[in-house]
Design a protein that fits this description.
It contains 12 helices and 8 strands. With about 270 residues, the protein is α/β, with parallel strands linked by helices. The protein has 2 domains: about 50 residues, no CATH class; about 190 residues, Phosphopantoate/pantothenate synthetase (Rossmann fold), CATH 3.40.50. It binds ligand PTJ.
């Protein structure tokens, strides 16, 4: 039995936090396999913290954002799904399913460019069934002028030409840079007041492990919807208001917890 098996055996399915622990382990395994950057562990922990104060469920505002996001991706001429290490480790199959459903390529785009990471992520995506992976051929990469981080290296037939870029789980600089060069940006971020969340056209404040399967289902559901109806869905969505509503929801949840959290002691 190797170390990974040992760790998984220590994770009983009956544990009240089984799901959360399962995804933690995926991130830890991802670090060992070079898929996830070491900083990805910290990013995941930050996400968990926000998920906790959102009640660890997909709330109505996240659902509204998911609806608008899928409509925007279906309406786009050249949608692209940007993939980083955490995303590949947590939801590889769903990334491939979404890519197929909305006809958008997956492009590997990393903040931390450690040697071997692109190959490791490519393998994870290919094992999940991906056929069209961009961001892996240095000859086809170009740099975005208005960005200094490694994320500036983009595929000429992918993010560079894309009109709508889906950036699940992102750091702020690139969202701002993509907006400034005229791209539509859709983000998933559990932190509703991150720079990514604020800059994006549509911000899905939800855990990627719940949001991606919802997006895949909805993409199949909305596929036959005509263009004017898709446009209506997008036009009736207000990202700023949706984020403000999400913040209210967090406040309400914490207020409820102030009373409820201690009830457990009385049972
Ligand atoms: O793989 P790389 O090299 O491209 O690096 C990826 C990370 C995530 C390490 C890098 O982009 C980074 O450092 O990101 P940040 O600045 O920590 O931002 C990540 C954001 O994602 C934070 O606002 C977290 O709250 C949020 N987040 C973390 N886990 C999840 C999440 N949002 C949704 N679902 C999650 N599971």
């Amino acid at each position: 039995m190797n170390n990974n098996e040992n760790e998984n055996h220590a994770l009983p399915k009956t544990h009240p936090r089984y799901q959360s622990l399962k995804y933690r382990h995926k991130i830890i395994e991802g670090v060992k396999e070079l898929v996830v950057a070491e900083a990805g562990l910290i990013a995941h922990g930050r996400g968990e913290c926000f998920d906790y104060i959102l009640g660890e469920r997909t709330n109505i505002y996240a659902k509204k954002a998911i609806n608008a996001a899928v409509a925007m991706l279906l309406l786009a001429n050249k949608p692209v799904i940007s993939v980083n290490g955490n995303t590949a480790a947590l939801v590889p199959e769903e990334l491939v399913k979404l890519s197929d459903a909305i006809n958008a390529p997956l492009e590997i785009n990393l903040f931390y460019q450690k040697k071997g990471r692109i190959d490791a992520i490519r393998k994870v995506l290919e094992d999940a069934g991906a056929k069209n992976i961009l961001g892996i051929d240095k000859e086809k990469m170009t740099g975005l002028d208005n960005l200094e981080s490694n994320r500036r290296f983009v595929d000429v037939v992918g993010i560079y030409q894309g009109d709508c870029i889906f950036v699940p789980l992102e750091d702020g600089d690139r969202t701002e840079a993509l907006k400034k060069i005229g791209k539509k940006v859709i983000a998933i971020d559990l932190n509703p007041i991150s720079r990514t969340a604020i800059w994006a056209d549509i911000t899905i404040v939800d855990n990627i492990v719940r949001a991606l399967p919802e997006m895949v289902n909805l993409a199949h559901g909305l596929k036959e919807t005509n263009k004017s109806q898709l446009k209506e869905i997008i036009d009736s969505f207000n990202n700023k208001k949706n984020i403000q509503d999400t913040l209210e929801l967090i406040k309400d949840y914490i207020d409820t917890q102030k009373e409820d959290a201690f009830k457990i002691l009385k049972t």
